[in-house]
Specification:
With 207 residues, this protein is mostly beta strands. It contains 1 helix and 16 strands. The strands form 4 sheets. It has a 5-stranded mixed sheet, with no helix packed on it. The longest helix has 4 residues. The radius of gyration is 29 Å and the shape is rod-shaped. It starts with a strand and ends with a strand.
């Protein structure tokens, strides 16, 4: 039994080879079975001369929403006209892991109202990958704030899902002394690798 790694939304091409090792011309009926979207015919009726081979193209589509590690079976049966089995073969197609998380900060800036005490930053997380991901998001303040506490948020995203998290942060006097300042937003996978970077400007209301 053969095996093959495939990707989401991939069109996979096979060439089915049928060889007649007998001394007589044989008429064979091939039947292809799979739960995937088959883009070519599933049944063939071919006459094969002695010693010759025929080649039948097989094309199928891997679902865009297939989960990492999912297995799909492709089986082929060759039968005679009276439904006797000549031969059979199969192949297992396994969906390859694809990590693809992104973060988005709506808008370009946020207004910090005078004496409001707090401000909130919405951050949308989108998992376009085919595997569940545990992620952390960190908002880094300017160095002039003397290493002001960096908010950290964590989330677990199912494959092909999205969610919105909020950083609600207490404002301090150093912030109000600035006309505006920038927050750098960093997203990390569980293993520490960065998946995305962004930034947002906080404008301070002075009156």
């Amino acid at each position: 039994k053969a095996s093959l790694e495939v990707k989401n939304n991939e069109i996979v091409d096979f060439m089915l080879t049928i060889k007649n090792n007998s001394r007589d011309t044989q008429r064979v009926y091939s039947q292809i079975k799979t739960t995937l979207n088959l883009l070519t015919k599933s049944d063939f009726n071919k006459s094969v001369p002695p010693g010759d081979s025929i080649f039948i193209p097989v094309k199928l589509l891997i679902p865009n929403n297939a989960i990492a590690g999912a297995n799909y079976n492709l089986s082929v049966q060759l039968k005679t006209a009276d439904d006797r089995l000549y031969d059979r073969d199969s192949c297992i197609l396994t969906v390859k892991k694809n990590r693809s998380v992104h973060l988005f900060v709506p808008g370009n800036d946020i207004l910090l109202q005078k004496d409001s005490g707090y401000f909130s930053i919405p951050i949308r997380l989108e998992n376009a990958g085919n595997t569940e991901e545990s992620v952390s998001v960190i908002a880094k303040f300017p160095a002039s704030f003397n290493n002001y506490l960096q908010p950290i948020a964590k989330a677990t995203l199912a494959p092909f899902s999205d969610t919105t998290i909020y950083f609600t942060t207490k404002a301090n006097k150093a912030m109000y002394r600035q006309r505006d300042f920038q927050l750098n937003i960093s997203g990390f996978y569980k293993d520490g690798n960065v998946f995305d970077l962004s930034a947002i400007t906080i404008q301070t209301a002075t009156s």
